[in-house]
Write a structure and sequence with these properties.
Structural class: alpha+beta
Strand order of the largest sheet: 9-15-12-13
Order of helices and strands: HEEHEEEEHEEEHHHEEEEEE
Distance between the termini: 38 Å
Number of strands: 15
Shape: globular
Strand content: 25-35%
Length: 228
């Protein structure tokens, strides 16, 4: 397993003492080849039923406090293909489909030094409150992230994780997601049903929804109670 991806995976013990692999998005990966990132687009299309009204964006984040979004530019660059990608004020972008870029083995290239920015997938449906995330969106977002990140795993590691369904479908893996601010607690709410879910004890902005538990519908909301 490559070090960058290995840093995303660590063992945790749940309240029931059942071993759980927790996949944290605290350290986001670097940008990759266009063909690899395009696998995330394919995964989003396949997961559309989970989030039929949602949009997929990728969001760039500075790796350090010294790195800034100001002046940042993103392009898809190959030997013969150059495609500018528009960045939003928050560092977000929509990755376009481009057959020529695939054929040209293009890469996503920033006009900043290597390792200065990282990315994450972001799937959002309209109408979700600012202090909540929709569970179906998170399921689709996980599918996008996993489709891209598993390409960096050694074949044996990819097969071992895939045998359990991967972090999006396995009951013994938990994918971590970032909340807007440090959390006191996080709750699932589906109609009259409500249940508290784990918050990462080391990174208080990270929560772990039960993506694989289909007893919670895709319209379930993960609601945040922020720390003071």
């Amino acid at each position: 397993m490559k070090p960058a991806l290995a840093s995303l995976l660590f063992l945790a013990i749940s309240a029931s003492a059942q071993p759980v692999v927790e996949v944290s998005t605290v350290r986001d990966p670097e940008l990759k080849a266009y063909a690899t990132m395009a696998k995330g687009l394919d995964a989003f299309d396949a997961a559309r039923a989970r989030a039929p009204k949602a949009a997929l964006r990728f969001v760039l984040r500075p790796a350090t406090r010294e790195d800034k979004l100001d002046g940042l530019e993103l392009k898809i660059v190959g030997n013969t293909v150059t495609v500018p990608v528009r960045l939003d004020a928050d560092g977000g972008f929509t990755l376009p489909r481009n057959t020529a870029a695939l054929q040209d083995n293009a890469n996503l290239v920033l006009n900043k030094k290597k390792h200065s920015f990282r990315w994450r997938a972001d799937v959002r449906s309209p109408g979700v409150p600012a202090n909540a995330r929709r569970l179906g969106d998170l399921r689709a977002q996980c599918a996008v992230q996993w489709a891209i990140e598993q390409q960096d795993l050694a074949p044996a590691a990819r097969a071992a994780l895939g045998a359990t369904g991967g972090p999006c479908l396995s009951m013994t893996m938990h994918m971590g997601f970032d909340a807007p601010a440090p959390l006191k607690a996080a709750w699932l709410r589906d109609g009259e049903r409500q249940e508290q879910i784990p918050v990462n004890r080391h990174h208080r902005r990270v929560f772990n929804p039960p993506l694989a538990d289909r007893s919670w519908s895709d319209d379930t909301l993960v609601e945040f109670s922020y720390a003071n």
